[in-house]
Amino acid sequence: MSHPLLLAALLLAGTPKLSMLPAGDVRPRGWIWKQMDTDLREGLAGNYPKVSSIVDVELFVRKNGTLAPPYEYPRGKVARSWWVGEVEGNWLDSVVRLAFLTDNAEYKERVRRAYENVVKAQQNEPDSYIGIYVPKDRFALRTQTEFNNGELWTQSRLFQGMLAYYEYTKDAKILEAVKKAVDCTLKNYVGKEVFYQGSGVGHGVAFTDTLEWLFRLTGDRKYAEAMRWLYEDFSGKENEKPPKATLELSYDELRYPDRLWWSHTPHVMEGLHTPVITLAMTGDAKYKPAADNLMMKYDRHDTPGGGVVGDEGIGKRLGTSMLPREYCTMVSAIMALNRIAVWTGDFDATRRSETIALNAAQGARFHPALKAVRYLSHDNQKDASTPAHAQRYLYSAWHGAAPCCSTTAARMMPYYVEGMWFADHQKNELIANYYGPNTVTTTVAGREVSITEETDFPFSDKVKFVFGSDAKLTLILRKPPRCGAVKVAAPGAKVDVAADRISIRGVWKKGGAVSVAFDFKPQLVSEPNLTNAYHYSWGPLLFSLPLGEKRKTLTEFETLDGKPSGFFMWEITPEHSERWNYKFDPKEKFAKVDLPGGNRDTPWANPPIGLRGRMRDANGALMDVTLTPLGASVLRRTSFPDCTQPVVGPQEEWIIKARKANPDGTIQQSGARKKMQPPAK
Ligand SMILES: [Zn+2]
Which of 517, 544, 576 is the last residue in one of the domains? Predict the structure, then answer.
């Protein structure tokens, strides 16, 4: 142990820099509560079993899943494969979070039954296995199954909800059940070769979520060692054919800053945090270059409204307002970025997830209830009427392509809530990370504290923190994007404003308050990856010109017993398609206005604020326009060309231009190294 490198590794190894608060310590209020409650009771979250049986197979109880191909899920009949386990686990994760965060007794009972049945079924297993497979198909290895093994992936999806349930209820038998099941998995897998490029086994990188959560709960080093095995096995050796897993996330590939990402966006987002967490948990410097390059690479492919490009694959495309991103990948990104912030202490990482949650993800679903989701959505969204690409471009309760987006969309805001507050117990700090109406009741450095955040954020730039308990701590406020001259009213407290944060150190009595005004102003933002493309923003919100909408139902899904479900597949075309060709005039100024009909409880359905000004139509005439938050319109134009600059070809060609940004797949050639070719599908 006296070897200096070992010693250094031990010193670096360890615990997260910040503490994630236990699920349930942050309670949403205002519009966030309302959105969750509506999604659960009226939306897809609570009603998916009406639309498809895929969430109700009880695969983790019956354990009759097999390694047979997963690609079948007609609505009434599903293959017993990893895909079904994924959907069931994720769907329960959405229901458990929404049920407890909105205090819905009916759905709390439903998830209690679901998880207790899983625990009961575990008691019949001599090795405490929890998973989906029949005995002969459990714990398949790379050599046996290639890619069609969803063991780690499906377990991790179920455990994500079970661990949340444990934190909400403090029911120790649930935590014990997960720990025993994970022991069984590690006994069968650690030290062996499991990963293979793509499909179910590649998704298994998300077992990171299980290992890091159990490590946070127990501090047991066995989870750190398991994390090392997971990332080592996942990171196939360079030039190994076929590579073991999603190659761009392997630590060897991530060392090369010039290489773009190309493969399946869901796989990449599900493992986004793995390099950072492996480095932090093991302290092994070999993972450092990978962890260091991660966010730089993410940012290249990120779109202005949030979310990494993807219409299944990233395809080496730089993110633009004209390119699609997939709903479920945005949810995975929020989860991953919360964890990156906690493990590194760099809470600025979450400005990316804040952008997703307050823009792109709101703009890819119906409001006020989550009754339809657009699988692939854009900042600039001209219509949503083509059933091409297996209906991925339609707002629908169900897509022929896959159930990943419609069954996981309701998890988006619960993970935003998860990241609203972090704690630093060593420094006695409570960190406001994402803003919005909520109450946090937690323990910081051993002392209980309760704060209610009174705000309509992001529709207001004013936030008041009212103490529900006596407190002596430092309140850290992450600076949201595009703040002006921040004003803080905190009598008696010491206030420091830095580049990324505001620190307020003080002693408060119950009922005391801190008021903050962020001074947002309408701003014109240039897109990094498109020539002559700009959008208007106000704080974290992007604004769009709504194109209006004509909605037509294509299909009403029948419930499984043959009744109308009230859930549809929609065809939506623009009412004002001419607005697509508007340009902005740099001489025109936009002002923030309160909108008639605005409702701060249902702000995405009834936006309370807008930006008012004038734009030029296709003939150059000045037109009065009101831009609304991106998430408040279904069809919209978000980025516009400057009317004083040349437009390079028809604006639709932007898509092609972005696709061709780096046809050879590099930003710049890295010395004499050969370019890595993407693996064959
Ligand atoms: Zn998806």
Answer: 517
Question: How close is the Cα of 58 to the center of ligand 1, in Å?
Answer: 21
The domain total for the chain is: 2
Residue 610 CB neighbours (<10 A): 23
What is the pTM assigned to this prediction? 0.93
Distance 490 CA to ligand 1 centre (A): 44
Please give the mean pLDDT across all residues of the chain. 90
Q: 304 or 655, which is more confident?
A: 304
pLDDT tens for each residue of 365-411: 999 999 999 999 999 999 999 888 889 999 999 998 888 999 999 99
Domain closes at, from 202, 230, 245: 245
- Is residue 50 included in any domain, yes or no? yes
With respect to residue 30, please indicate whether it lies within any of the assigned structural domains. no
In this structure, what CATH number is given to the domain that contains residue 439? 2.60.40
CA of 488 to the centre of ligand 1 (A): 41
Distances in whole angstroms, Cα of residue 11 to Cα of each of 15, 220, 231, 281, 290: 11, 16, 21, 11, 20
In terms of residue numbers, what domain contains 510? 421-517
d(CA 560, CA 84): 17
* Cα(398) to centroid(ligand 1), Å: 11
Distance 324 CA to ligand 1 centre (A): 12
Residue 222 belongs to a domain: yes
User: Over the stretch 424-464, which tens digit does the pLDDT of each residue have?
Assistant: 999 999 999 999 999 999 999 999 999 999 999 999 999 99
